[in-house]
Specification:
Elements lengths: L1 H7 L7 H18 L11 H5 L5 H4 L10 H22 L1 H29 L4 H8 L6 H14 L4 E4 L3 E4 H18 L2 E4 L3 E4 L1 H11 L1 H9 L1 H4 L3 H17 L22 E3 L8 E3 L11
Antiparallel strand pairs: 1-2, 3-4, 5-6
Length: 292
């Protein structure tokens, strides 16, 4: 991971949680203006292979279902807050890899589900695929962000219902149990109010693919990612000391010793007549004795 970070770290997107929040804002705006248009943005593998390539990217703007607007805004702020904390803790590059790998696994899972659905439900494949593709959204991606936060800061506390303090690790365990139950029990959906479809296959693949980034990161790179607050503090202090040790002024007068840092208003030039690399400020450039 460190080798890849050195090579590709410069391409990482800073404040990725804010970018995701903006995508949701766009999605809610589309939902408010023309809710039916969102159906053209979802992640549907069948429609992608039939030419609707934009769905590979636009599914990210499809927002979580909005119930109570206050609760929705609170949840979005919560996910933004924990995502920002993870980015500061892990670093921008690792957080980018975590989020984008979750999205990539979700897209791949959608195509796997389409193929499996074709083999198992040929007679009702089109209907099953249309209903099952709705499970491939950012909901489980958000869940993976929270699980990552709970694994990184297990002792952190949140106020349940704004009153009851509870450690994040217990909420993470509860969410994991609920996801496991959803995976085992399966899912049924009603289509048109009459037909009930068992889309458990699609739901299971969606859960597994969306959380695969969590599984990979925390069983492969756990030691390199999860650090205590004391370790993070020591690392920041070390970086500050290193920066101070390597802080070198660009210009310094060989006569008076003033620098561009102590006197930013001065101009500095090298003297072509001096033997060596001697630099002088504007007050001594023409009055100094040349070094032979």
């Amino acid at each position: 991971m460190n080798k890849f970070e050195k090579k590709f770290g410069k391409y990482a997107i800073p404040n990725l949680s804010t970018v995701l929040l903006v995508c949701y804002a766009v999605g809610y705006a589309i939902q408010f203006l023309n809710n039916d248009f969102l159906s053209y943005l979802t992640l549907d593998a069948y429609k992608i292979v039939h030419g609707q390539i934009w769905r590979l990217f636009t599914w990210v703007v499809v927002p979580p279902s909005m119930g109570n607007i206050f609760i929705t805004l609170l949840m979005l702020y919560f996910y933004w807050s924990i995502g920002t904390t993870l980015e500061r803790t892990w670093g921008t590059y690792r957080y980018n890899v975590y989020i984008f790998s979750g999205m990539l696994f979700t897209v791949l899972g959608c195509f796997v589900a389409m193929g499996a659905g074709y083999l198992l439900y040929r007679d009702a494949w089109a209907l099953m695929n249309a209903a099952g593709s709705l499970f491939f959204n950012t909901g489980y991606i958000n869940m993976s962000i929270f699980l990552a936060f709970a694994a990184t800061f297990p002792e952190a506390q949140v106020l349940l219902m704004f009153i009851i303090p509870i450690k994040v690790k217990w909420i993470g365990i509860l969410d994991a149990v609920l996801l496991l139950w959803e995976f085992i029990a399966g899912t049924r959906v009603s289509v048109g109010g009459a037909v009930v479809l068992d889309v458990s296959l699609y739901a299971r693949i969606a859960i597994l693919s969306s959380l695969l980034n969590f599984i990979v990161f925390f069983f492969t790179y756990r030691k390199g990612i999860i650090r205590s607050p004391k370790q993070i503090k020591r690392q920041h202090e070390f970086k500050r000391e290193v920066n101070r040790a390597h802080m070198v002024t660009k210009h310094k007068c060989a006569i008076c010793g003033r620098t561009d840092e102590s006197n930013p208003e001065l101009e500095f030039r090298f003297c072509s007549k001096c033997n060596g690399n001697y630099e002088y400020c504007q007050d001594h450039l023409f009055t100094h004795k040349h070094v032979e």
